[in-house]
Write a structure and sequence with these properties.
The complex is a heterodimer of chains A (159) and B (292).
Chain A lengths: L5 H5 L6 H5 L6 H13 L3 H9 L11 H5 L6 H14 L5 H13 L7 E3 L5 E3 H7 L12 H14 L2
Antiparallel strand pairs in A: 1-2
Helix pairs in contact in A: 3-4, 3-6
Chain B lengths: L1 E5 L2 H5 L2 H13 L3 E3 L16 H15 L7 E3 L2 H16 L1 H13 L10 E2 L1 H17 L8 E4 L3 H4 L15 H8 L3 E2 L18 H16 L5 E4 L2 H9 L1 H7 L8 E3 H8 L20 H4 L3
Parallel strand pairs in B: 1-2, 1-3, 3-4, 5-6, 5-7, 7-8
Helix pairs in contact in B: 2-12, 3-4, 6-8, 6-12, 9-11
Bound molecules: iron/sulfur cluster (2 copies).
Amino acid sequence: MLEISLETIRACYTCFKCIGVCPAGLRPNLFVKAYLSSIFKEFRDVYEEIIGGSSIWSCARCLKCVEICPQKVPLNDIIEYLQHEAAKRGLAPKIYLNMAENTMNTYLAFTSQTIVSKDGDFYTTEDIRELLGLAPLPEPIGNEKFKEILNMLRGLDSK
Amino acid sequence: MKVVIFTGCFTLVKQIAVEVSILKVLQYLNIEPIVPRNINCCGFAFRSIYPSTSLYLTARLLASLHNPETIGILTLCNGCYLMLRETVYRLKEDRKLLEGIKSHLKEEGLELKEIPRIIHPIEFFHDIIGIKMLENAKRRQYSDIVVATHYGCHALRPSTTPSFDNPMNPSKMERVIEALGFRTRDYPERLDCCGAVLLATNPNLAMRLAYNKISGTSRWGFSLLVTTCPYCFEMLDSRQEAIMQMFSDEPKLSVMLLSQLIGLQIGLSESDVALNLNLSPIDRILPYIVKR
Ligand code: SF4
Ligand code: SF4
């Protein structure tokens, strides 16, 4: 996880510019408060509410709040920190865990999809790739070491 | 000239037109694409949940994709592009981090000898192919067609990590499109988010963001919206009909990939650039820009 300097967080002067630009209707300044409370044990209720709630998972990562903030508070790093804290409590959306699992097993986050053309034809990923002369999907052969390292890192990340 | 192509997972499995159209355009420009098969997911989606895992995945890409005979890694997806440019930046700043990653890579038989250049498609056309070349390659001038550009959030932001253009007021895609003979115009929603990141956790909100982008952009009378990112394309093109329906509205914005527009303008056919995979209402614009 990236180091976030306390000084930059303390710089938030609640101007609410971040709220004004957020397309997801979030209040990013509250994430700053929650982050502070994770260190100083003040605003503990804000922290608990945010970690246990859905707002951190409703961030579209448009990064507009980061750009607008006159105090250069690294809101993106703060949101990721809080998501990580929630994940360590087992509160991460399952879909992301599945994507990491897929990656470990097949190198890719996604499996084969259905692709529709304008004329209403349906193709599987494999079929349309072959039809259009594109290389087949990577094959997870000989990936034991890869799996081992990823497993180890995922374990570290979960602590 | 040779260039490594990195599609990322989503282009590979779903947004096939992104890959097809860029390969065809490169072929026309006499640039040899190297398309490695030993790729992996960059870890963007789960980067906050598994930070060191996703960092490793991206660093692994730097090692496995690097080819010293090429100009760098042309990265087709904005999410992968953000991961790669951020990782390059962090590894250059942090020797200890770099050494740790190198030792894991070594266990896999991979080596990170030097850090390759990460190239965004817009940067590729603007800085490497160049405006002059595009001007010379175009077949016709279309001064009555006005194009809206959509860069996508992760092409440019956050500004703390270096990118190819001004994060709050980019202009390179405009220059490329103008070189092709079209007009561009600024609009209030130009830097707005397509919502794709939220598809996984809050699909309704994702659709609302995309709806705001599509309906907002449509107000200004553009003939076409152009993007390069497979996720933005998914939201603005592939899902446009479903999104508009959700808000009791009609599909109304023609959407194309930059590589498709370039392809058509240099004389490639509709099937060369896989235009049959665009689901937004492009029929109204096609008669004007396609050689038939
Ligand atoms: S824009 Fe920055 S300083 Fe203003 S409230 Fe948000 S985080 Fe605080
Ligand atoms: S990055 Fe997240 S919190 Fe910040 S403005 Fe965008 S959606 Fe809102």
